[in-house]
């Protein structure tokens, strides 16, 4: 879909021209990917007055089989040294008569910025800021289709795990098995490191799997996701291992479930990011678990697993239709464990059926 | 080993003071790890005139079980927003009366640099450059012991793979299985994405595994490594699948083997980086394969898989004793495949026994 990428670049160029910059240098890999369909390591994208140019180290002919190549813009390969000055010199030759170059100050290093400034002392360097990230917020049909497939792969891998024997296996092995299953079902790889937490580790966000083995009576929290055509999705569930959950487990689960539902139900075009967070957070705070909630209760997903927007108390901005986000409140009680429930949904208006749930694995409290 | 980290910080502080900076801000994660024993995501380390401070977002009590914590310096956790200004303000309160702050311009973003400058307009920001990377070049006994174990784990995982049936399995599955075996044998995880290339993909550096299945008569190149206590090691081997290799396969293998041996034999304290590269490269160039060799034939390993030094034609500098490097020449013939052989060795003087080979899997051409 080369015309999609060209259209995205045209939109970015218009944005920058309106802000007074006649050339743009994009360095953040996910942003390059969004604008060209590929992002070779350490490459930069230049949108000049005349033409667009991808400057990359290494020879495209030596790329792995199937590595995406941009088919609608010129690629300049740096055969020799791939230092800052070389990139700057090559790039600036392409921007030609530009007078102001917008760069991603939140990504570009000081060293590279200096190299650009020294190669072209008369070119004004301005800040592109998060213009590409803003453009990436609202997804098109193709992007949402990729996220749907990624979600389906996550559901499949998780479903298979639930049918296997869990007691006695380590967090680390369960995580590796889930990642293998993601690939079996067509993922390019995991969208992020799979988190498996049992017993006292359950309910933690981003828990790094350990050698702790699953025991009867444990809470077990699993958070995983697939990457499909570059798009990343996320699902998290908490289970009880053994036949009957304890009362405290049922109570905590119901609470987190209620919080997560409140967050999901708050997703509608025009709502403030922080109001979605508050909807989920206040359920937990009212029950005395405010301290254990963490700094955010959801975030955008797409080419990166943790994109804009952030659903957090101080986040500024409003949700649009077609923005995919996670809703993932959780509570962790030190020493005891906890619960996290995490879905990926696409914001849609009520007329359009309301939020579209991509991750459909049941949220009943299953005893495995 | 907290005193090790404190000693490393003292050495860095002396280096900076000699260069005129009385405070240092380290932002590159591997560098923070080297200087403190841990590197929470998005943290920065400040070495002030008075004290050292690790500024990190999030609560250490919520860290994964077993996550390393620095036990010999103060940690300031940012509970609220973890933006550039907050880090800068907190950090600068710690550096107190400093007049010049050295920062890692090759890592720090322009936005963060600006935030620092605006919070303390009278503080001169200087460039630390790659001072910590330079300090990391020569490894101590503890670091080399970790690399030895990482290498042993890689050898074990590779050895087991060689005993299994390969024909009909995909590159992707072989790579996943190798990564599982690394963890089985005690690795924290793979040191880098495992490369498995068969048939026409064999011999490529950093090949991303595909769904191609192993066939009789293929070259099969595997490159993998374990991460152990943060340290990363690398081994690469090429095999023939089936009973008898073709003549062209034997010839190409012998050539790459001779190049790799020449590189290994060139490793001695005081030798120029580029002379090691040339020793390996000229064997391949003399045989008419100069174009397919790639930009470097080896690199340092340690807390990162691709550290200084780089063994390449234009690299400036000399090897010291106790520097671990890879020697990994390869040739890839488009459409036909190729050979790579990759070892990790520690440079040692002849009096000390010569280069220490960490990755001991055989380099005979095995037919699997």
Automatic annotation (TrEMBL), chains A, B:
UniProt KW keywords: Aminopeptidase, Hydrolase, Protease
Pfam families given in the database record: Creatinase_N, Peptidase_M24
Keyword Protease set for record: yes
Domain Peptidase M24: from-to ranges: 146-348
UniProt GO molecular function: aminopeptidase activity
Keyword Protease found: yes
InterPro entries: Creatin/AminoP/Spt16_N (IPR029149), Creatinase/aminopeptidase-like (IPR036005), Creatinase_N (IPR000587), Pept_M24 (IPR000994), Peptidase_M24B (IPR050659)
Residue ranges of domain Creatinase N-terminal in the record: 8-138
Name of the featured protein: Aminopeptidase P family protein
